[in-house]
Amino acid sequence: MSVFTRRTILSATIAIAALTAALPAAAQQKSIKVGVMSGAEEEVAQVVKKVAATKGLDVQLVPFSDYALVNEALERKDLDANAFQHKPYLDAQIAARGYKITPVGFTFVQPIGLYSKKVKAVADLPKGAKVGIPNDPSNGGRALNLLAAQGIIKLKDGKGLSPSLLDIAENPKNVQFSELDAAQLPRALPDLDAAVINTDHAINGGLDIRRDTIAVEKREGNPYANFVAARQGDDRAEIKTFVQSYQSPEVAKFLDERFKGAIIPAW
After folding, report:
1. How far apart are CA 128 and CA 227, in angstroms?
2. E strand map for the chain
């Protein structure tokens, strides 16, 4: 190789490096993979993706239909972050599986509801009513707390956010509980007198929190706010940008217009 050729290549390399350094942030776009639940939550994440793109971040959404798989994918580094869960759920997952995952920014709250196609009010639930609840510990406990708040059951003292069926102290209507996978509850509703259903699965199942519920969890001070989660110690700028994009006026406006109170900002 001649001296002239080496000098030409070196000069071209330096020029390319200088040009790359001079490119605006949008041209040096970063990318992250984020796990979300398919359906309504994915709709919200699509808006976040658009906001993030204006900040130079390419968000690759990975939709899931099973809660149990999302944290596992994050732990294995198949994802950079996820946005689907509340703190009681993550706490239960960490206790059961030892995940090193932590919340990094709030997203929204989905007040859980008691849905029924057979009765119009809690008082109308018959003796021996069949009531469906999610079969995972955190959402099952959330369902029992809603039922206790409505006076359908009474729980033992001191059980906090994660009671189980074994913690029912009083059951005056002799309610018969069916513990089912959360995603299956909308389909099972016709065969039950009522069911406590997570809002994302209710929306995906064609249910309306205003029309089809006989009781709804409180909105203010709700301890079940969802958040973006990442692996412990991962403080990359891309994840912070994703959180900022979620906590944006554009996303707040979309939640209000699209879900009308069924999903509300938590930041």
Report:
1. 37
2. 30-37, 57-64, 81-86, 101-106, 108-109, 113-115, 130-134, 154-155, 168-170, 176-180, 194-197, 213-216, 226-231, 264-265
Q: What is the pLDDT of residue 7?
A: 52
pTM: 0.74
CA Rg value for the chain: 23
Q: Tell me, what amino acid is at 4? A: F
Closest to 228 measured CA to CA, from 14, 85, 44 = 85
Two tokens, residue 107: 């997203």
Closest CA to 64 of 33, 89, 86: 33
Q: Domains along the chain?
A: 24-110+223-265 (3.40.190.10), 113-216 (3.40.190.10)
**Which has the closest alpha carbon to 41: 109, 104, 113?**
109
**Measured distance CA(239)–CA(52) in Å, rounded:** 10
In the block, residue with structure tokens 């932590």? 102
pLDDT in tens, 70-104: 999 999 999 999 999 999 999 999 999 999 999 99
Beta bridge partners of 154: 170
Reduced to 3 states (helix: H, G, I; strand: E, B; else coil), residue 117 is coil
Instruction: Classify 66 in phi/psi space as left (phi over 0), alpha (psi -120 to 50) or beta.
Output: beta
> Which phi and psi angles does 64 have, rounded to 5°?
-125, 155
Helices 87-97 + 67-75 axis angle, to 10: 60
Residue 107: Cβ within 10 Å count: 28
